[in-house]
Design a protein that fits this description.
about 600 residues, mainly beta, 6-stranded mixed sheet, 6 helices
């Protein structure tokens, strides 16, 4: 691997600090690291035992269940496709080495798949069962220079197209594809400079930066995921190898920066793929990203919002209820109707057969009133125990909150967990056979997924049909999830998508049934559809002009309300029928871009003119 000039003369460890070297055998080989890494993602020496592999320790993971150290050859070859770095795995045992140690390491070459091979990720080339001895030479004390990740060094194209097959055995083209560039640097020191944060700090002490601030930027400092071909390969996950008590990890929001140099070995992990394990962290610059507030609806406007409250139950921290209420009252300006998703039953994750959520919803509405908001009423239908997916035992469901001083709810009996709601005609107008009622609740499309909840409201003398939704997860839950974007299968299969498309067909047909009775009927379908504006799911929902996406009125770079792996994207939608006219749409950024968040979703609101 061609890198910048390296100085690698390092003091030798005392003999007592080094493990004994493995004895040579007729089958053992003594290659260099670039020979082990090879020119594809899989080592040509996988399964073989190697001896006396020379290198310099560039990083040590001295915590957790996967301890070890990174070794880098200070004398690279001239092939850009061959990495000069390697991870030496020591399991639960601390390796007892330090950054800068010059070693000769022996062990077995292994390809390790984080999360298991079936997860679809790429492998990490490692040495296992390793032993080592100090390098007898003295070369000065520096480390191999870090490869700098920039818009010039990381290609715009993301990955080779293998027609959905594995790219493992393909020759790396680091000058052509971002994933190939990163693989060619696996285990080596890399660096980013003055990097903008595109994914906030998580509870696991990591964040995402971009090495190219010009790559699909959002107005608030993120990187927009605007299509299946816009993977944004400049994104890079950053975690730290530094002791947290001595070097606290920065609490950064989207739009903040890591000023100066952030450098360390490049690793690959299950959650996010290629990750810079920092031995040097840039200085956190807080750019003071502000939470948004939407305007108050006018007297003659109906405000319908959607909010995924992320596994809310009485077991949640009381502060979560208070912050959700503050968001609804202050940031969302007390919408008239709210579809809420991920409302858990009254015992939360306890798998005890409880399905009712009266306590959960009462605690939420009480918190809203305490925050100065309206006295929201609510409607929902309890699911069948363990039938709707989500956190085991939680029995998440969708529900309606509504302000009875502004709108009324038309209650009709007959709605339960298994009886499908129908569209009926009453006096020449559409109506629901039960309100609230669940749509096509027995259809196999809803296996291990939340069933949509339909409700009939009245606003200023006009009927408004609202449907609360939470389509099946991309992660799969009880079913097959999507292959990872950064995985070995390219392009990755979207295994979860067909189920959402079938769900979209059912919802679309339901809306068409309403419009068949009255083409000017007002319908709002809101919620967490778990899919993108450009996806087949959303195209199916809009088919036949049954529904439209008022989000499309927003500038393209503002259409997001969720941040995943450093990509700003959209999973939550409020769709309206043509009879709703031209609504005013707003995504209210209060959560997804912030390290301190109440939910991982931003709420949205649509205001319909009367």
């Amino acid at each position: 691997m061609v890198v910048a000039a390296v100085c690698a003369t390092l003091p030798a460890l005392p003999a007592s600090a080094a493990a004994p070297a493995a004895s040579s055998s007729p089958t053992a080989r003594a290659p260099r690291i670039h020979d082990i890494q090879g020119t594809t993602r899989l080592s040509p020496l996988a399964g073989e035992r190697v001896t006396d592999v020379p290198g310099v320790v560039t990083g040590v993971r001295d915590f957790g269940q996967a301890r070890g150290f990174w070794l880098q050859d200070p004398h690279p070859d001239r092939n850009a496709a061959t990495s000069e770095g390697l991870f030496v795995f020591t399991g639960k045992e601390s390796p007892g080495v330090a950054v800068g140690d010059g070693l000769r390491v022996s062990g077995r070459v292994t390809e390790f798949y984080p999360g298991g091979k079936e997860a679809g990720g790429q492998s990490v080339t490692e040495l296992t069962g390793a032993s080592w001895k100090t390098d007898g030479t003295r070369r000065g004390g520096g480390l191999p220079a870090a490869f700098r990740l920039t818009p010039r060094s990381v290609p715009e194209a993301y990955a080779p197209d293998a027609g959905g097959g594995s790219i493992e055995n393909r020759a790396l083209r680091p000058g052509r594809y971002a994933l190939d560039r990163y693989e060619s640097l696996e285990g080596m020191r890399v660096s980013v400079h003055d990097a903008g944060v595109t994914g906030p700090t998580s509870r696991y002490h990591d964040l995402w930066v971009t090495t190219d601030p010009g790559q699909n930027p959002t107005p608030r400092g993120g990187t927009l995921y605007g299509g299946y071909e816009d993977q944004n390969g400049a994104r890079m996950k950053v975690s730290s190898l530094l002791p947290l008590d001595e070097h606290p990890f920065p609490q950064a929001d989207v739009g903040d920066e890591l000023d100066g140099t952030t450098a360390g070995p490049l690793d690959y992990e299950q959650f996010g793929g290629y990750t810079l394990r920092a031995t040097t962290l840039g200085t956190h610059r807080d750019n003071h990203l502000e939470r948004e507030r939407t305007r108050k609806q006018r007297r003659d406007e109906l405000a319908v919002a959607t909010y995924n409250v992320e596994n809310l139950s009485p077991r949640s921290d009381p502060a979560k209820f208070a912050r959700l209420a503050e968001g609804l009252v202050s940031n969302l300006s007390s919408p008239d109707i709210v579809t809420v998703e991920e409302v858990q039953d009254d015992t939360g994750p306890d798998d005890d057969g409880t399905v009712g959520a009266r306590k959960t919803l009462t605690m939420l509405t009480d918190a809203v009133e305490k925050a100065g908001g309206p006295s929201y009423a609510w409607r929902q239908i309890d699911p069948v125990d363990q039938a709707d997916g989500g956190q085991p035992g939680g029995n998440i469901r969708v529900a309606f909150l509504y302000n009875p001083e502004r709108v009324s709810f038309t209650d009709r009996p007959g709605g339960d967990s298994t009886t499908p709601v129908k569209v009926v005609e009453k006096g020449g107008k559409p109506a629901l056979s039960a309100s609230p009622g669940r749509i096509a609740s027995q259809d196999p499309a809803w296996k291990a997924s939340r069933k949509p909840l339909a409700g009939e409201f009245r606003f200023r003398g006009r009927t408004v049909f609202v449907v609360a939704n939470h389509f099946s997860s991309k992660g799969g839950g009880d079913l097959d999830g999507d292959q990872p974007m950064e995985g070995r299968f390219q392009p990755p299969a979207r295994h979860s998508e067909p189920q959402r498309v079938e769900q979209a067909k059912l919802l679309n047909a339901f809306v068409r049934d309403i419009r068949a009775v009255d083409s000017r009927a007002v319908v709002v379908a809101g919620g967490d559809f778990n899919d993108f504006p450009f996806s087949p799911t959303l195209k199916t929902l809009r088919s036949g002009h049954a529904l439209t996406s008022p989000m499309n009125q927003l500038p393209g770079d503002e259409r997001y309300g969720y941040v995943f792996n450093g990509n700003s994207q959209t999973l939550d939608h409020l769709l309206t029928s043509p009879g709703a006219g031209r609504p005013d749409y707003d995504i209210v950024h209060i959560n997804a871009e912030f390290a301190d968040q109440t939910s991982d979703h931003d709420p949205s609101v649509v205001r319909l003119p009367r």
